[in-house]
Amino acid sequence: MDKKILFSRMLKSKFFMVGAVLVLLIVLLSVFSPFIVQFDPVTNSLKDRLISPEYFASGLSGHVFGTDDLGRDIFSRLLLGSRYSLFIAAAVVLVAAFIGTILGAVSGYFGGVTDMIIMRLCDIMMAIPNLVLAIAVMAILGPNIFNLIIVLIVTSWVQYCKVTRNNVMVVKNAEFVKASQVLGAKKTHIMFRQIFPNVTTQLIILISQQFGWTILTEASLSFLSLGVQPPTPSWGNMIADGRNYLITNPWMVFAPGIALMITVLAFNFLGDGLRDVLDPKKI
Amino acid sequence: MENTIQQPLIQVQGLKEYFKIPGKGMLHAVDDVSFDVYEGETLGLVGESGCGKSTVGNVIMRLLQQTEGKLFLQGEDVFSADKEQQKEFCKKMQIIFQDPYSSLNPRKTIRSILSEAYIVQKICPKNEIEKRIQKLCETVGIAKELLDYYPHELDGGTRQVVGIARSLSLNPKFIVCDEPVSSLDVSVQAKIINLLMDLQKKFDLTFLFISHDLSVVRHISNRIAVMYLGQIVEIAETDMIFENCHHPYTIALLSAIPKVDVNDKTERIILEGDVPSPINPKPGCRFAQRCWMAREDCKTQDPTLQEIAPGHKVACHYAAVSRKEAKTAKTTILSSL
Amino acid sequence: MENNVLLEIKDLQVQYVTERGTGNALNGLTLTIHKGESLGLVGETGAGKTTAALSVLNLLPKPAGRIIGGEILYNGKSVQKMSNKELMDIRGKKISMIFQNPLTSLNPVFTIGEQISMVIRKHEKCTHRQADEKTKQLLEEVGIPGSRLHDYPSQFSGGMRQRVGIAAGIALNPELLIADEPTTALDVTIQAQILELMKKLKTQYDTSLLMITHNLGIISELCENVAVIYGGRIIEHGPVKDVFGTPLHPYTAGLLGAIPSLEGKKERLHAIPGKIAGATNLPAGCAFHPRCEMCIEKCKSQVPPMATVRPGHNVACFVKAEGK
Q1: Hey, are the CB atoms on A178 and B163 less than 8 Å from each other?
Q2: Fewest Cβ atoms nearer than 10 Å: which of A211, B305, C22, C259?
Q3: Is A47 inside a domain boundary?
């Protein structure tokens, strides 16, 4: 696709622009959080318990979003938590996309028994409720970030596998693949050099959509204390901590809740926007 | 051509290609097809959609695994070749596809598309590839500026020229042209046909030209094979097919083409009904259901290709009388409409 | 003579606005169809054949395509100025259309009987049963057994589907039938059946026909007159016999020379050099001038007007018009 058209479509798509700007902002905030935060997000300081949000009354040196029941600054925890959330999501999405894409490509290209086995595996994975699987794995392996990542990968590679398989099956019947074949090309060459570049668009869209899903699932697992373990902050366990204070000190829940919502929304917008931008059929 | 001793470059023997259709039976896409293609000639393979002509081309290029049958290239058995030998055969046999849109990878530049053959076959050092591509472009007449373009930036005709250039990149002897001009506009089509004929002369190529367009096939072919429902029903020199064909299907096919010349409105034979399904075909002549001169034994006995004149083979029990009966058929069919 | 005119397209200009830029699909197309006339509109990809047909029924894809100039008069009344109700009345009842691909023009979830009788019931006051009865008659008219009324489009072959399309097209006895490449997707022997059918129906129903195709053979088979379209304009217009017998415009001549013939000596085909003028890269002056061997200075800047060279045979070419 022409770069010019791509660029003009990006500017035209509201979803893409809103999503991209928000995502960029969130990533920048989380990357540079050590330079922004003024408080230790982990250590308790009981004398500062449950201070109401000051917002930006005294700049960044005040408790912007207040403090929690153990006197920790919520804004600092929010930013530090975003690093975990984003890191976990990035790790999960990249590894799951890698595994899913390869399995999907193999499944779609070779077909037959290979396809049958991989697809049935996908069906089985999709039949197991994610949460139940997560609870089981965490119960056996013990809850920590590494295991959390493993659980999320196991539950999310199926998406990539199915999408890649379907796209590969369409592309592999194109005449340019046959042309490659009659030139004497090996199967690996055909798969990676000829077919793969034609399925990347769909993959990019899926990855950005899955990002939001992964952050949300990680938060739910952390909420159930099956994910990131306290005192390490995560948006999920921050919401869990604030549960009991919902009536009296609602900011404990609202701050991480809204942050979570905005982040997930940003990635979903980006995904939808990318679909509009990269759609070759749209005039 | 007539003066040289004709040697078969390609020999197709008893080719069968069946597909299993779950719940329905066997689809006989190609059913016992045999023909030779002589060195330097163009054999036209015509027929309507679903008659198996493209399948023949695909099986010859080993894009489909044959169910039965043999293929010889200069006497060498192609189908039983091992992987290394197959890669060698790739250098001698190539194919030009119908759809210039789907035959070029949309994500690759023209340069990258044309360099593929040299990369996979490793026939020349890497630094020579560019030189070879340039030469290829000169041969077929692609402007060098176009090398950095993507396929979608070119029009259909130019894309097809790129497809032709790619098929020539390994200097093949034999090229299967699978409907290379059917998706092009008339004025562009003429350009491609001229190019193909020029290239054939220049490189002494042999073509199997698959098409449904009889006027194109007549123009480019030395001989024509007519296919119906997976079988060759008639094969002869081009002029013979057009002036003195004997299979009732060929006669009907020729009379069905709408002619541009207003003064040339001969009576035509309109075949009734559709082409029957190629799944589990009934015994007997495949054409019997639609044939205006079908008799009882046509429905039970398979006609085989019989030589009725030197180089002219017809698969019809009543080839001897078909032309005579065609004249009466025209009047009866038209009056029944 | 004036009363005889059914459809008049005057200097029609249609523009498409897309991301890749603005395309001028039609650039002053002028065309007249008389009652009972069968006119062939012949042209290559991007010449504006289909756009012309869609504009007549006010069916241009929105918002991309729009009419920026000229007018279309149906029975003396401007189509653009008609109300929605009048338009609905004209579509289907007065003018109906047969599409290239019968598979996509029929709705797969309704039986063909339902689809045709729906059209009948929409425009004519009658009961379900009467509509079904009429549908059955129509199907038999086009060579489909009436018993197949309750079959779905997917149960028919390509040729049969096009017959259904034709049955739907003639259901309301329209005054004008527009056929957009009706046989392009079909095989030669099936195409022959469909052409024979259209010939029969044309005389039987006495409809005017606008046959849009790239196949010159079909035009000469079915039409009395032919208009050649190039770059969104009619460049030659006249009786089929004259236009195909002694073509005037260099493009028409080139087109005829590019078709391999079925008889006579095999000569090298005459390929027209250069690229087909598309909507986005329309040359100034005569759209054909960059590819024309007879091009003179005037052709590069001025659009040649239609000139009558012999009775009924018009051409838009400076060189040919002067040499008469």
Answers
A1: no
A2: C22
A3: no
pTM over 0.90: no
Using a CB–CB cutoff of 8 Å, tell me whether A202 touches chain B. Answer: no
Assign A283 a pLDDT band (cuts: 50, 70, 90): very low
* Shortest CA gap B49–chain C (Å): 7
Is there a contact between B71 and B60 (Cβ–Cβ < 8 Å)?
Answer: yes
Poorest-pLDDT segment among B227-241, B254-268, C280-294? B254-268
Considering CB atoms only, which of B90, B99, B169 is closest to A175? B99
C242 pLDDT exceeds 80? yes
Residue C323 has which token pair? 């040499």
In a domain, A46, yes or no: no
Residue A104 sits in a domain whose CATH number is 1.10.3720.10
> Considering only CA atoms, which of B231, B258, A121 is closest in space to residue C42?
B258
Look at residue A129 and tell me whether its pLDDT is greater than 50: yes
pLDDT above 70 for C88: yes
| DSSP string computed for B147-191 | GGS-GGGS-HHHHHHHHHHHHHTT--SEEEEESTTTTS-HHHHHH
Asked if A283's CB is within 8 angstroms of C18's CB, the reply is: yes
Residue A141, in any domain of the structure: yes
The domains found in chain C, sorted by start residue, are 2-109+152-322 (3.40.50.300)
Q: How far does the CA of residue A196 sit from the closest CA of chain B (Å)?
A: 10
Which of the residues C19, C22, C60 would you substitute to probe the A interface, choosing the one with the greatest number of A C-beta atoms within 10 Å?
C19
Classify residue B126 by burial, with Cβ atoms within 10 Å: 0-12, 13-18, 19+. Answer: exposed
What are the pLDDT digits (tens) for A152-195?
A: 898 899 999 999 999 999 999 889 999 999 998 998 899 988 99
Provide the residue range defining the domain that includes A15. 3-40+63-278
Helices A145-171 and A74-110, axial angle in degrees (round to 10): 40
Side-chain-side CA neighbours of residue B246 (13 Å): 20
Give the list of residues 6+ apart from residue C115 with CB closer than 8 angstroms, or none.
Answer: C106, C107, C164, C168
The 3-class secondary structure across C199-223, one letter per residue, is HHHHHHHCCEEEEEECCHHHHHHHC
Q: State yes or no: pLDDT of B66 exceeds 50.
A: yes
- Is C188 close to B256, i.e. CB distance below 8 A? yes
B105: nearest CA in chain A? Answer: A176
CA atoms within 13 A on the CB side of C237: 20
Find where tokens 């097919």 sit.
B241
Query: Do the Cβ atoms of A8 and C18 come within 8 Å?
Result: no
- In Å, how far is B286's CA from the nearest CA of chain C? 16
**Where in chain B are the domains?**
246-337
Alpha-carbon dihedral angle through residues B91, B96, B99, B104, given to the nearest 10 degrees = 30
- Whether C13 shows a pLDDT value over 60: the answer reads yes
Binning chain C into helix, strand and coil, the percentages to the nearest 5 are 40, 25, 35
CB nearest to B185's CB, from C159, C189, C276: C276
C64 touches A: beta carbon within 8 Å: yes
Cβ contact, residue pair A180, B120, below 8 Å: yes
Q: How many CB pairs under 8 A join A and B?
A: 61
